[in-house]
Design a protein that fits this description.
Shape: globular
Order of helices and strands: HHHHHEEEEHHHHH
Largest sheet: 4 strands, antiparallel
Distance between the termini: 40 Å
Low-confidence stretches: 167-178
Strand order of the largest sheet: 1-2-3-4
Radius of gyration: 18 Å
Length: 244
């Protein structure tokens, strides 16, 4: 029997006592690896946190090759990325729990880390781990297969259906980024800018949910704590030291 991706337990946050898996199936794990770790622009953010991802996303040919191969070998070729991502996601959930930046969305427990990473954990498995940025594209639900078989069939034809779907930034935003790129790089500043953008994106999600009557009070409180926490700079600095 051919080897395939080996699903592992997720030990971050409150999941240690819940026997939670890091994704419910091999197909779901491979889907999220393609969508978040291997699809720009989010892939570039994950490459800063996962050293083994950097040579993959820096070469389009290598990235495409892995995207194709993992659907042929049932994720075995992505085992290393899966394991590293699981470890990083667990540490982000732990940081969110320590800061109380967590909330419930129906049966899902949501962690929002000081890196700006959102970890959504269902009753049996992690559902997603991502940077909730406006530029990170989402496929319309009608384009997302409901079954594992449908996912495999779709992704064998196109591993990266989200690629190229995000909207380009307005000219004025591009000019601001160009001016910043000419300045000396400061990792702490860059981290905080990403964090601030993710907070604003999550706040927009809450605004939409509130308008529909679906927002959770615990979520709003957690987000307000995250936005106003005066220790965010120290937290980011500590994260940077741990990564060094």
């Amino acid at each position: 029997m051919n080897a395939s991706l080996r699903l592992q337990p997720f030990m971050g946050g409150l999941s240690e006592r819940r026997r939670t898996l890091f994704f419910i199936s091999v197909a779901r794990a491979c889907q999220h690896i393609c969508d978040h770790l291997l699809t720009p622009p989010e892939a570039d953010l994950w490459a800063k946190l996962l050293p083994e991802l950097r040579p993959i996303v820096s070469s389009r040919k290598t990235r495409l090759r892995l995207g194709k191969t993992m659907w042929e070998d049932e994720g075995a070729s992505a085992q290393g990325l899966y394991d590293s991502w699981r470890t990083r996601a667990a540490s982000q959930a732990d940081r969110a729990l320590a800061l109380e930046w967590i909330w419930w969305e129906e049966q899902d427990l949501v962690y929002f880390s000081p890196r700006g990473i959102k970890v959504v954990v269902g009753p049996r498995a992690v559902k997603t781990v991502y940077f909730p940025l406006p530029s990170v594209s989402r496929l319309p639900s009608r384009m997302e297969p409901a079954s594992d078989e449908g996912i495999v069939e779709q992704r064998r034809g196109n591993p990266f259906p989200r690629e190229g779907r995000f909207a380009p930034a307005p000219d004025h935003a591009a000019r601001r980024r160009d001016r910043r790129s000419r300045r000396p790089s400061n990792p702490r500043i860059e981290d905080f800018r990403i964090f601030r953008r993710t907070v604003d994106a999550v706040r927009a999600e809450f605004a939409a949910a509130s308008h529909a009557g679906d927002a959770t009070p615990s979520g709003l409180r957690a987000l307000l704590r995250a936005r106003s926490d005066l220790e965010i700079w120290e937290t980011l600095l500590e994260e940077r030291r741990q990564d060094a």
